[in-house]
Amino acid sequence: MAVKVDTVIIDPEQTSRELIVNYLSNIEDINITHQFNDILSAQDYIFESRPPLIIVDITKKTNISLDIISKISTSIKNCKIIVLSYDMDSNIVIKALRAGAREFLIKPLIEKDFTEAVNKLKDLIQGNINDTARCKVITTFSNKGGIGKTSIAVNLAMEIANITKEKVALVDLNMQMGDITTFLNLDPSFDTSYVINNLDRIDETFLLTTLEQYNKTSLYVLADPPDIEQAEIITSEDIATLINILRNVFSYIVIDTTSSFDSKTITALDNSDIILLVSTINLPSIRNCQRCFDLFKKLGYPKDKIKLVINRYMEKDDIKIEDVEEVLDHKVFFKIPNNYYVIIGAINKGIPVCDQEPNSNLCKSFRQLAELLSDNYSHNNKNAIQPNKRETGLGFLDIFKKKGD
What we know:
By secondary structure, the chain is α/β, with parallel strands linked by helices. It has two domains: 5-129, Rossmann fold, CATH 3.40.50.2300; 132-389 and 396-404, Rossmann fold. It has 19 helices and 13 strands. It has helices at residues 14-24, 39-49, 62-75, 90-99, 111-126, 131-134, 149-164, 180-183, 192-197, 204-210, 228-232, 236-247, 263-270, 283-298, 321-328, 340-349, 353-356, 361-373, 395-404, and strands at residues 5-10, 30-36, 53-57, 80-85, 103-106, 136-141, 168-173, 212-213, 219-222, 252-257, 274-279, 306-313, 332-337. The strands form two sheets. It has an eight-stranded mixed beta sheet, with helices on both faces. It has a five-stranded parallel beta sheet with strand order 2-1-3-4-5, with helices on both faces. Mean pLDDT is 86; it is low at 377-394.
């Protein structure tokens, strides 16, 4: 039997308190220990009883409330705080998160959102889940430039955020020529080097206020360092630590890497749950994929960790999907259609593809890929690779067969 989670409700409105009590009555293992109409009158009780869950409205006396919340989160490390407010100003949200709130919900409350927030924190308190275990790290990689892996990373991360509503971190580890901020038209105040230089003070609040939130979504972007000198002092150990820390806050991490097999990139690949190996269907790209698979084998990566993604796919390509699979001895996981005008239009505007052309084949493709890789995937794979009829006389396979003779 699970331990009951003692919960304190602080809300100046009686009808709102009653609504919260009603919503909580439908959630198992919640024990309401006390209700207050003012955080000032609640603070003595909180510091004495140290409840693991607090639900507090900060609409009135906002600054005083945030100051007390900060003191609570500092003094009671295991306390989870849900902040409620009629004020949805982004500055208030940021201040609440900085003060130590784990969730910020707008009033009037929507039962589904409220229940999800409470259940998530309840499970954390009871030890049923931890953020690290829940997080999935996905890295896009190709050892050949110009393949489109950054476009895939950006649009995949955006669609995972849209589909799951979970917090998603998009991390640019292309330390010298990263383009993620360009693709999303962002000018972030902080970058990877800043976060790494402050590893000793990182917590959820720090990360959510340091990473650049994209357009009020659940996507947060960590940019590459602006100077080469800053990038050079970042070590492989720093990268590993950064990923582990991000795992504690985000449900998904999507990493875009450089196209070289340097120690930092390999560290990112080592610490990934899934590697999307991106290729196009042409001879140089397939040769490069072979080299990647050879290295991945030497690194001891399990075969199912590598997901082969064909970008800019055209049905009438001379080289067929099954030819690629035979040469690489690896199934193609997903194919993204070739649509130059849609992708270049989105890039030039600095917006995701689905914001540019929501009805395009590219948008549908990125959404399907996100569904496949997200934990709430619940449909059959409509984009499963369908085998084409093999044509005879194709020289592509002969080239690779001769190489192995």
